[in-house]
Amino acid sequence: NISSDTTMSALTAAANPCLEPFEHRGITFKNRVGLAPLTRGRASYPEGCVNDLHVKYYTQRSSGGFILSEATGISRRGQGWYKAPGIYTDEQVAAWKIVTDAVHNEGGKMFCQLWHMGRAGHSDLFGDVPLSASALPLSGEVTVENHVKKPYETPKAMTDEDIAATLAEYKNATKCAMAAGFDGVEIHSANGYLLDQFLQTCSNKREDGYGGTLENRLRFMKEVIEVVLTECPAERTMIRFSPNGAFQEMGGEDNLETFDAAIQAAAGYKLLAVEVMDGLTFGFHEKCAQYTLERTRKNVNIGNPDGSTAVIGNVGHTQESANKEIGAGNADMVSIGRDYMSNPDLPERYRDGLPLAPQPAYPDWWTHEDAQGYTTFPKATPTLHYFGPFAGRAELIRLVCKAGALELEECYEKPTDIAAFASPGSLPLFTHNTLKMAQSGAIEMYCASIAPNFASLSVGQRAKDQMFACIKEEALAAVAKPLFGEKNKDDITAVFDKYLGMIEAYLPAEGFVNGESFPTMADLAVVNICTSYMPYGAGIKVAGYDYKKFAKVAALVDLTMGHENLGGYAANDIAVFGL
Length: 579
Description:
By secondary structure, the chain is α/β, with parallel strands linked by helices. It has helices at residues 4-8, 52-60, 90-105, 123-126, 160-179, 194-199, 214-228, 255-267, 293-303, 319-327, 338-342, 346-352, 363-366, 395-403, 440-450, 459-483, 489-506, 521-531, 533-543, 551-561; strands spanning 22-24, 27-29, 33-35, 66-68, 72-73, 110-115, 131-132, 141-143, 149-151, 156-157, 184-188, 237-241, 273-277, 310-314, 333-336, 383-385, 409-411, 429-432, 435-437. An eight-stranded parallel β-barrel has the order 3-4-6-11-12-13-14-15, surrounded by six helices. Strands 17-16-18-19 form a four-stranded mixed sheet, covered by helices on one side. A two-stranded antiparallel sheet has the order 1-2. Helix 14 (395-403) links the parallel strand 16 (383-385) and strand 17. 47% of the residues are buried. Keywords: Oxidoreductase. This is NADH:flavin oxidoreductase/NADH oxidase N-terminal domain-containing protein.
């Protein structure tokens, strides 16, 4: 179970640099934690179109500072992964537009990763021999249609004509990405795919203008950047490198020199960001020293001295390592992959000090064609179960979550494992991660203790909140007796006179109960009595009662309901049972 002490002491943004907003090049990133590009499959084949699963997957993860799409093929020949999406046809653009619109509706930012697999593809998937810097095949097997394994093929060393055609494909894909509503693009120059095959000496054995010297090996990458920038401005363009990676037989003794030059060259175009896979959990070639984010920052600043190119760290980062690297100035943001798969609300879990769900099993990463292991991971969002359409005892809980900026899932169905709540079976019931609770008063206090807007309240203020909530609870029991009995108007009136009179005596002459500039649970409890439907509102209607006879009560209700933190929240005043 999660104690209120734990959640109340969750690190603030000041101690959590990764949760601070980042204003950069005209873009507001709401925090510095992004979803890394993760190839998860599930697109249509051979069309390469995303679908409703992708819409749900990305919107579930839109609370991060940014989303980098899964690797997305720039052409049929570049899209050599079974059921990976593309971004080169009108049909693909239309499908991606649904995804980006949904992400934007949730306040997210999304960038399309432009991908050409080079020698890592297979002719079974696109009908032609794969392309690469040199005719050097990978060892082992590649997955083709229906997850069949076949040996890698010997690629064709690209001619000048092949290079020109591929540059045209990058240009078209970038144009398509912008038409699909992406906020920008990321050029995939990592993990042994086509651009990386040109950069590294282990895969580039050319003796022409695209090989041999370091400057020649950088040439294709620079030409790709230049053609991408004809369709997407530099302030919306990123690039990704993997100087440490052993994936797909990459890595060399000269990688430090190679990637110093590559990062300087890329930053020289004043790109929005350079993302470097500095971590080692994806596999380290061990042929030279580890490439660090500190080294990345140095070379980014050499390439772009005005500091307008951000650094993004990737691979194996945790909240602790993200805070360390960002706090030290080595990175501006981090992208998280595997933990984000099973924790769609990862930034919120970081913020609230909640435990992370275990990473999914490897088969769930991309081998399925359905929701399993993809969109089936729940958020740690609190869930409130109550009778609909009126909230009853749950109404103050809803008000607390709304005013406290605590996201709340609402459900009209009773959980099946009712015994786990230590409840005789009555609603409301409440879940938050592993915590299960009954009793509305306890739920109210818990939600108030973890609500972001109430984090600064003192112990005394919280005690006053609890006092008003207890008065509300006593009033509920008192008004329910005549309301559900003989409906005697005088008896109902007497109850309201007693409890609202008590509240009137406690209220300050003006302002909110706790003296803050925003309403807290004490104010919301008064609103609950005066405006919610069941049972208070029903009693007010039956008795024809006017709570406005108490001037301070009436003023507090108006002040609270008009506050921006309630965001137009409307009390449920529908007539139920004809009352």
